[in-house]
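INPUT
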Amino acid sequence: MIRLSSSQRSGLVGAALLALVLVAIGLLTAYFGSRYQVRLVYSAYVNLIVVLGLQVFMGNARITNLSHSAFMGIGAYAAALCVTPENIKKISLPDAPWGLAQFSLDPVVSALIAVVITAVLALLLGMLIVRLTSIGATIVTLAILVIIHAIFLYRTDIFKGNQAFFGIPQVFNLTSVIAIAILVVIVCRLFRESRWGIQLRASADDEVGAAAMGVQIYRLRLIAWVLGAVILAVAGICYAYFLGTISARPFYFNHVFLTLAMLILGGMRTVTGAVLGTFLISFGLEGVRYLETGPVFLGIDLPEALGLSGIALGAVIVLTMALRPTGIMGNREIETLFVRQRH
Amino acid sequence: MEYIVQQVLNALSFGAEYALLALGLAIVFSIMGLVNFAHGEIIAVGGYTMVAFASLAIGNPMIVMVGAVLAAMLASLTLERVAFRPVRKADPTTGLLTAFGVSIVLQNLFLLFVSPRPIAVTSLYFLDWSIEIAGIRLASLQVFETLTTIIVIIALMLFLRRTVLGLAVRAASLDFEMVRLTGIRANRVFAIAFLISGLLAGLACIFIMARRGSVDPHLGFEPVLKAFVACVVGGFGSLPGAVLGGFLLGAVEVAMLVMLPQSLGGMTDAFVFMIVAMILIWRPDGILSPAVEKGDKL
Amino acid sequence: MLTIQDLHVFHGPIEAVHGISLEVEQGKCISLLGPNGAGKTSTISAITGIARSTGLVRFEGRDLSRDSVEARIAAGIAVSPEGRRIFSNLTVLENLTLGAALQKDAAEKAKDTDHWFSLFPILAERRDQSAGTLSGGEQQMLAIARALMARPKILLLDEPSLGLAPKIVRQIFDLIADLKTRGMTILLVEQNATQALKLADYAYLMSSGRIVAHGTADDLGKSDKLMAELTGVA
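OUTPUT
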C-alpha cells in the first residue's frame, strides 16, 4: 500500500469534490439533455482530459506546450488502427503497409497499445525537450505539432489524412468518459502533490535554487511530460471510441488554441483551474457559436460571423494574461476554498 | 554548374527570408523577452494592404510595396501599444501566451472581415523574371531577396552601432533599467524595436507575396514558424544568431529538397526539423546563445 | 539643491525605508553611510524613480516625486549605480556615448568624451574594447565617467568602492575628491565609512530604513553610534 503525504490526502479531498461536480454535470446531461447536448458534453469531457494532460506538464514544469493535440491524435489513431475490424480496414485502408489491415484487437488491448506507443514516442521527444530553455522548448513543441500533422496528412495509406478514418467500434458512452475523467483528475492531483510534483513546481520558481537542493529537474520534467502524454493518449482514445470516425483536422491548431485557452482561463497551476476553465469555455463557446451562424436575435437578423469564436478565444487568452496571468484559480485548489471559510 | 549555382541561390533566398523574420523576432525578444507569435499576422497585414491597393485600382508597384511595409510597421507599433504594454514586465511565458492570443484574434479578424479564402495579388509578379548572369539562368526574385536582406542586415548593424537609439537597443537587451537611468525614454526603445521588427516583416512580406501571389489569414504562419526555429537554433535573443540560424535553416531545407527522393516530397519539413532537433541536442541553448544568468546577478 | 522629506520606499509590498529626510547642498559632498540592508540603495532608487516611494523629492526647487525616471535624469541627476551596471556588451566608447544620450550636440559630446578620456587614461586606451573585458576598478571608473557624460548637476554614487582592492579603492576616492574640487555636487553612498568621511562635508547614518544619526564628518567620525552601527558591536 502506498502511503500518502498530507498534501496528497488533501489533494484527494479536492479530487473528490471535483468528482462530485463532474458527476453532477453528467447526471444533468444524461437526464435532461438532448442527443446533441449529450454529444456536446461528451466532447467537453474529452477536452477536460486533454486540458488535464496539458496541466500536468505546463502547470508543474511551467513550460508552454503546443503539441498536446498531436499526442491526442497519436493515441486516437493508434487505438483506431488496432481496434477497427479487418473487413472495414480492407476497404478503408487497402494500401496499408506492414500488415496493418490484417488484424484487429479488442478495445482494451488496443487502448493499452495506443497508450504505450504514445508514451514511448513522448519519452523519445521529451528527452530533447526537457533540456531546452523554456522558450526553446515551446518552439520545438510547435514544430512537433506541425510534423506529426504532416505525417497524418502524408501517410494517407495509414491515417487517411483529412478524410474520415471510419469503422471504429463505438464502445464508450457518457458514463465511461466521466469515470475516466474522474480517474484522471485523481491522478493529476496526486502527481501535483507528490514529492515529484512539489519539487518540479519549486524548480519552476527557482531553477538554480532547486538544482542546488539536488532536484534533478530534467528527469522530473520528463516524468511530467510522459505522464501528460499518456493522459492525452487516453483523451484521444475516448474521442475515437465515442465518435467512431476520426480525421487529422481535429488534432491541429484550432484544438490547440481551444484547450490552451481553457487551461489559461482557469489557471494552469491547479487541477481545479483546468476543470473550471474547460467547462466555462466549453459552454461559453456554445453561445458564441450560436451567434456565429447569424441568428435572428431580438428581431434583428444578425449576419453570419465566421471567426467570432476564434476572436473570443484569443481575447480570453490576452485578457487573462493582462489582468490575471495565473488564471481564475491562481494557486488555489478547490479544497482551500472550503478550508478558508471555516476560519 | 548552373544547377549548383541555382541551388545555392535557392538556399540563400530561403535563408534570407528566414533571417529577415528571425531578426525581427530576435530584436523584440532581446529587449523585452517577448516571443512574438503575432509576427506572422504582421506579414498578413502587409499582404492585405496590397489587396486594399488593388481594390483601389492603385497598381504602381512602388506605392504598393512601400504601403505594405508601412502598414506592417504601423501594425507592429500598434500591437506594442495595445497588447504588449500591459505584459511588458511580465515573465516570458505570460508574454508568449499573450502574443499567442493576439495572433489568434488577428487571424480570425481577417477571417471575419476579409475572407477565409486566399485573395490573389498580382501587382508583384513583375519582380520575378529569368535573368542570365555569366551564362547562368537565375530567378530575379531570389537575387533581389538575397541582396535586400544583405543590405538590410548591414543597415541594421550600422544603426545598432552608430546611433544612440541603436546603442540603447543593444544595451537594453542587457539592462533595460540602466538604459532608462541614462535618460533614454523606455517607450522610445520599445517603439523602435517594434518598428524595426515590423519593417523586416514588411520586407519579407513583399517577397512572400511576390512568390505566392495570394494572401489568406494564415499567410505568415509557416514562414514565422521557420523563423522561430531559426531563432532557437541560433540562440534566442541573439541577433547574429538569428541571421546565422536563418541562413542555416535555408541551407538545410534546400539540401533536403535536393537530396530527398520525390516520393518523400511532403515530408521535407519533418526532415528539416529533425536536423534542427539534432543541432539542439548538441547545443540546447542554440549556437550563438547570449550568456544567460539563471541565478541572481550581483 | 536636493531635498528629501519623509521618504518611504517600497519593494513590492515591503517597505524598505521608513520616512527619512535629508538635504544635499550645491557643491557639497554628502555621504549616506550604513551597513548592508540599511536602505541606502533603496533611497537612491527612490531619488531616480526606479523604486516606488512616497514623500517629497525636490530638486532645484521642483517636486520630482511624480516624474518618470527619464524626466528626473533629464532634470540633471546622474547615477553610478550599485554593482556598476556597465553595458558589458558595448565598447567603452559606446558606454560613454550612451551616458550622453540626452546631449544632442555631437561636437559637445566629442569634447566631453575627450575630456573624460584625458582624466581616465586607462579607459582611453581601451576605448574600442568590450566593456565586459575591463577589470572591476576600470568598470567602476567607466560607470562614473558614463554618469558624468550627462553633465549632471548632481552625481549619485552608489557603493563605488564595493568589491575593489584597497589600492583601487584609494584611486576611486582620489577621483571623487578631484570631482568635488571641480565643484560637482555629490551624494555618496558607502559602507566604507572611514574613506567616505574623509571626503564628505556632511554625513547621514542609516540603519534598518531610518536615519539614526547625522552631522558633519568630524562629529560623526567621533561618535560611538557610527562604529556600533557599522561593526555591529555596541
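end of record. The longest strand of chain B covers residues 130-133.
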